[in-house]
Design a protein that fits this description.
The chain is built from 10 helices and 27 strands. By secondary structure, the protein is α+β, with helices and mostly antiparallel strands. The protein starts with a helix and ends with a strand.
Length: 530
């Protein structure tokens, strides 16, 4: 009996030791593993959205910034943009813009990135991709020189400086007194290192959730204040940052480019107050490009154009989407040709009963699915879209119609049913539908949402409209028929005439980048054909 008891005791000891070893390994894995590893699980909770900032030099509003997050099943896309008129010691302002785009896996591992800086007369572009967890391939281009490509070795996963706020907040709530160690790759210095980020303060901020126009002061002011908790992080490293970060990993306030401060606020308060004030002071009104949108200025094109040829001078145009579809580029010359109407018959039909399995959704998922501010899956949006399918088919209970007939019906309905009302910011398609009013941006968002609601690929386009001898900011949708075809629900054109000069496709949040061209770009109209 004693021998048997002794054996049982030994087995029990072995089991306890194995259990203790297992628990030790678990504790080590869960509580002492690097924070970047823990981000893999937390990153699955990242939600799409956008925040906007005013850019200040001292107490003066000198620019605008935005930070956007888009998510798919397999990736996270982050876009940060800043444009500002930065004054030097002599008080002379120089327009500076910085755009950062990063594609990450859902585990927060960087796939590729790009950093574009325009300051003075020499633009700089830095692009790269990560190969495994050991090499970053980086290409650097300055001015018109050829790109310089290098392979930089790294040890394990890294973050870019723009990702640090998100990394700090994911996985656990920040605490005052804690210090985070994160591996950071600096694309300018082409080096990676561990960055120490101490949390030294916690505070509440009151931030306006919306904005209204003050007709007396002729400025946008914030309304509907909301309370946001944030933590202050200070890094002495050049690749770090100094700022207040909220629970979602978004900056509330922070330092930028050394001399600037950004503060979160509604889009209208940041962008519109800057655009109509400091940013365009000193001659922009006399420029070829007008600061106002065509709709806001009450401009109507006098006659449709079938062809327009222009020469673009004075600005670096890399990164703009001038080439493609009905636009052809040769050197500094762009030819815009209105689509031939007989060729607008779409090659597929829309079936309301198989909306999610249509050819459009399989071929172009990004241009056929809902996204922030384009609520194509909303029941109210789908109901209106179905009515337009029947209108296009000419039958009360129709569920199918030709794609081009449906696109034409959308353009005509939005033009006739949505009142043209000047507004600011990037509107929601659903809000425009409910208000039955919107500007060119709003009508574009609604047209895109209605198209996607029935599986017709569509996207927003933005650029300039040539009218009465000048160019004005404008936005319009493009529908995929025998290719992407431009239309204009603001002026009821299907297709849109050749006075529409496209610079971007995709989200209208990029409209702020067009402001960078004001005062720099000169557009010479070489030829127009009615």
């Amino acid at each position: 009996m004693s021998e048997r008891a002794r054996r049982r005791g030994m087995v029990a000891v072995v089991v306890l030791l194995a259990w203790a070893a297992g628990m030790g390994a678990l504790v080590k894995r869960e509580f002492f593993r690097p924070k970047l590893d823990r981000l893999t699980e937390a990153a699955l909770r990242v939600a799409p959205g956008a925040v906007y900032y005013g850019v200040f030099q001292g107490d003066r509003l000198v620019g605008y910034a935005s930070s956007t997050v888009d998510t798919t099943r397999g990736a996270i896309l982050m876009r940060d943009y800043l444009v500002a008129d930065v004054a030097d010691e002599a008080g002379k302002a120089e327009r500076t813009s910085v755009r950062t785009t990063v594609t990450l896996s859902r585990g927060m591992h960087i796939r590729d990135f790009s950093l574009e800086t325009h300051a003075g007369g020499t633009p700089e572009e830095i692009g790269g991709r990560v190969e495994g967890d050991s090499v970053v391939v980086v290409g650097v281009r300055r001015g018109i020189a050829a790109a310089d490509s290098q392979r930089v070795r790294i040890e394990g996963p890294v973050l870019l400086p723009s990702l640090l706020p998100l990394a700090l907040a994911l996985g656990e709530r920040p605490e005052v007194g804690k210090r985070y160690e994160l591996p950071v790759f600096d694309p300018r210095a082409l080096t990676s290192r561990q960055l120490s980020l101490p949390v030294d303060a916690e505070s509440l901020f009151v931030i306006a959730d919306s904005a209204v126009f003050d007709s007396t002061a002729r400025r946008w002011v914030g309304v509907l204040p909301d309370t946001v908790r944030a933590w202050h992080v200070t890094s002495r490293d050049a690749a770090g940052f100094v700022g207040w970060v909220d629970e979602l990993g978004r900056l509330v306030e922070g330092a930028q480019l050394g001399r600037l401060t950004i503060k979160r606020m509604p889009h209208e308060v940041a962008f519109e107050n800057w655009r109509t004030g400091t940013a365009l002071a000193g001659g922009a009104e006399d420029s070829t490009l007008r600061r106002a949108s065509a709709a806001a200025a009450g401009i109507t094109p006098r006659r449709p154009l079938t062809r327009m040829t222009v020469r673009l001078r004075g600005a670096d145009l890399r990164g703009y989407e001038l080439l493609g579809g009905r636009q052809r580029v040769s050197g500094d010359t762009v030819l815009v040709t209105r689509e031939d109407i007989p060729r607008l018959r779409g090659t597929f039909r829309l079936d309301a009963n198989t909306r999610r399995d249509g050819a459009g959704r399989q071929r172009m998922p990004r241009e056929t699915t809902a996204e922030p501010l384009v609520e194509s899956d909303d029941p109210q949006m789908r109901e209106v879209a179905l009515r337009l399918v029947r209108l296009a088919a000419g039958r009360q209970y129709a569920t199918t119609t030709n794609a081009s007939d449906y696109a034409r019906a959308i353009v005509q309905w939005v033009h006739d049913s949505i009142a043209l009302r000047p507004s600011a910011g990037v509107p929601s398609a659903l809000q425009v539908l409910r208000d039955r009013a919107g500007d060119a941006n709003g009508k574009t968002q609604l047209a895109v949402a209605l198209a996607r609601a029935r599986g017709l690929p569509a996207r927003a386009a933005s650029g300039f409209l040539y009218a009465n001898g000048r160019f004005y900011y404008h936005a319009w949708p493009e529908f995929y028929l025998t290719g992407f075809v431009a239309a204009d629900p603001t002026y009821g054109q299907f297709p849109a005439d050749a006075s529409h000069l496209r610079f971007f496709t995709g989200g209208l949040d990029r409209q702020a980048e067009l402001v960078r061209l004001l005062g720099a770009l000169t557009v010479d109209v070489l030829q127009t054909t009615p």
